[in-house]
Amino acid sequence: MAMRISDIIIWILFIASIVMFIWYIFGNSPSFEQMILVLILTILITNVANTREVKIRLMNIEKSFHALAGDFKNHIRR
Questions:
Q1: Of 45, 32, 44, whose CA–CA distance to 4 is shortest?
Q2: What residues make up the domain containing 12?
Q3: Average pLDDT over residues 29-42
Q4: Which of 21-39 are b and which e, b meaning 16 or more Cβ less than 10 Å from the residue's Cβ?
């Protein structure tokens, strides 16, 4: 399965979160708030990507359901 751009962005932000956490532990690093901000951005973008994927699947199911309903209506008319 090919990686999408959103997957690549999520992985980059996840790695950045880990790097900033390790950097924070060893000192001379960005503030705690900046580290949390990167983590929150990672979680937020992951949720948006998953929500979009679920929305697309739901639209496909809805189209299939409407087509099935049309088939039943045609079958009853015959």
A1: 45
A2: 5-77
A3: 82
A4: eeebeeeeeeeeeebeebb
